[in-house]
Amino acid sequence: MPRDTASLIVMNDTIKTILSRRSVSKLSHPAPSSKELKMILKAASSAPDHGSLRPFRFIVFEGEQKLRFAKVLVEALRNRAESKGSNLTEGQLKKENAKFERAPTVVAVAAKIDVYSKIPEIEQLLSAAAAVENLILAAKSLNYDSMWRTGEATYDSYIKKAIGLEENDHIVAWVYLGTDSSGNDEPRDPSVTDLVTFWEDNT
Ligand SMILES: Cc1cc2nc3c(=O)[nH]c(=O)nc-3n(C[C@H](O)[C@H](O)[C@H](O)COP(=O)(O)O)c2cc1C
Fold first, then answer.
1. Residue 197 belongs to some domain of the structure
2. Does a structural domain hold residue 147?
3. Domain-located, residue 21
4. pLDDT tens across 18-52, in order?
5. Closest Cα to atom 18, ligand 1: which residue?
6. Number of domain units in the chain
7. How far is CA 116 from CA 53, 112, 121, 169, in A?
């Protein structure tokens, strides 16, 4: 399909990075090195932040710790099922246990909510979401792929506690990081025609 002329005229490296990002459900090694991850998290923490609250937290899971956390995910799933009086199948337990195997690195991004701030909670949450997008785009700019995931565990108090959060805080993403072995890196060319209007005062 021919790319429209606007994209051809103004495409630069930043826009190419944004358009090339796509979610990859199974990520392989390599994942960002510790130096690269530090830079990626600096980029993430540079997200717009009303009131300079720095309302984002990044909890990194790598190697052995990923395996250990899988046990916490399974335990939390068991607790949720028990509280609903439902039974879990072997398949459900296996799936939960394998979640963190979908990528070499997982970063939980949380909104650390300052309940006493005059900045509304929703804005603190939005800032953490902006940090997620910065994180995955910074990773993409260093040639790493990602996927922003959530799921039931995201909203589970047991999980929040296990990663050092308080009840008022919110996990906004489990960012899976690594490399797309398919190497599909073609920038996308989404149409925005149906999404955009130019307001005119016709009164
Ligand atoms: C807040 C949020 C939570 C998401 N949670 C999940 C999820 O748990 N599982 C999933 O398959 N996709 C989830 N997605 C969607 C994917 O990250 C991705 O955006 C979607 O599959 C579209 O693919 P693309 O990013 O390549 O356009 C979530 C997206 C957002 C913004």
1. no
2. yes
3. no
4. 999 999 999 999 999 999 999 999 999 999 999 99
5. 23
6. 1
7. 11, 12, 10, 13
